[in-house]
Amino acid sequence: MLKTGAVSAIGILLVLVFSPQLSLAEDEKHDVIVVGAGIAGLGAANELQSRGYDVIILEAKDRVGGRLYTDSSLDGIPLDRGASWIHGVIGNPITGLAEKYGAENVPVNDDSVTLYHNGAKMDGSSERLEKAGLLFNEFLDDVEEKRENISRAAKDGAPPDYALQVAVDEFISDKGLTGQILTDFLYNVSWCLEADYAADTEDLSFLHYDEVGYKLEGDENVFPGGYGQIIQGLAGDLGEDKIYKKHAVTKIEYGNSGVKVYTNQSKTFEGKYVISTLPLGVLRNGDVEFSPKLTDAKLEAINHLKLANFEKIFFKFPKVFWDDAVWLSRISNEK
User: Fold this and answer.
1) Strands of 113-117's sheet, edge to edge?
2) Pairing mode, strands 106-107 and 220-222
3) C-alpha dist (Å) from residue 115 to 120, 127, 303, 328
4) Which of 33, 114, 167, 197 has the most other CB atoms within 10 Å of its CB?
């Protein structure tokens, strides 16, 4: 079982109100056209439909859900190839949807870990692991102190930023870490930082690596039956006839009097508004043409953001060899 990162993919939500020059004389017409049938698109479409709008979704793939993708091809076992968590159940809209659709979700105990090193199972309460945990917490305190000092020194200007790896290297040097204690420290860096943020410390911002928007309180829950239950519920409420699969959008025209959306099916859709939930990668690649082009501020934001990769690999074993721990993890001698 692998720990999932906070971030495996990013969608940008753009609401575009659309061109006096557009002709609304042909093809399908709707109040709102939503591009993308991921959870953002499904959520927006359901909300608008509940308020009386005529809304459809155009989806490039042959399925709904986007990065929420429950795959049951391995002996019927529901495996979430994409997102799999409710990060904080208190006040989280996903919690409400789970209750609505009867999708069981259970909390995960992050402290329940079985560790292996050099092929041997480690004692989870060992003095070695306790020291490693204290050392890593000291590193986090050191990072926070340095960030506060940098911010104070910068005053009204933007403080200088650099890779988090610089702070890791400095801490290792200042503490003179070598041998086993260095191995254990780097394990915690990998497990607690790189796994959570789906990126190497060389690519994480020293000043902003932990800024992930608002954080909700409560347990971190997963779905034994898969996140797809939420997607299927939303799609069912909207109506499958409102979702046009295999309709990859190629161009969006917009202006003051309406919108026109072109697809790879040689079919165009017209409406009053379009909501784009295109993934960041699609926007960065310029796979969809916007006319007029997006503002410089939007383009700058799109090009500034980066995507992280977090791979999941599912193993099926002939028999259970593990204990009741939630996590199985291995301390590598090399980072």
Assistant:
1) 120-121, 113-117, 327-331
2) antiparallel
3) 8, 14, 40, 6
4) 33
In the block, which residue shows the tokens 């074993």?
317
**Predicted confidence band of residue 321 (pLDDT cuts 50, 70, 90):** confident
**Exposed, middle or buried by CB within 10 Å (0-12, 13-18, 19+), for 248?**
middle
- What domains sit in the chain, N to C, each tagged with a CATH number? 14-108+220-304 (3.50.50.60), 123-216+322-331 (no CATH)
Residues near 281 by beta carbon (within 8 Å), at least 6 away in sequence: 9, 307
Any alpha helices (H) in 10-160, and if so which ranges? Answer: 39-50, 93-101, 127-154
pLDDT tens-digit readout, 148-190? 998 888 777 778 899 999 999 999 999 999 999 999 999 999 9
For residue 309, pLDDT beyond 60:
yes
The model's pTM is: 0.82
Number of CB atoms found within 10 A of residue 315's CB: 7
Q: Are 30 and 55 in contact (CB under 8 A)?
A: yes
Cα distance between residue 58 and residue 276, in whole Å: 10
Tell how far CA 11 is from the center of its chain.
8
Looking at 200-209, 224-233, 301-310, which range is the least confident one? 301-310
Encoded tokens for 196: 């959570």
What angle do helix axes 179-189 and 127-154 make, rounded to 10 degrees?
A: 60
d(CA 328, CA 315) in angstroms, rounded, equals: 13
Torsion sign across C-alpha atoms 60, 62, 63, 68: negative
Amino acid at 135: L
Predicted confidence at residue 14, as pLDDT, reads 63
Q: Which amino acid is at 209?
A: Y
pLDDT tens digits for 24-55? 445 799 999 999 999 999 999 999 999 999 99
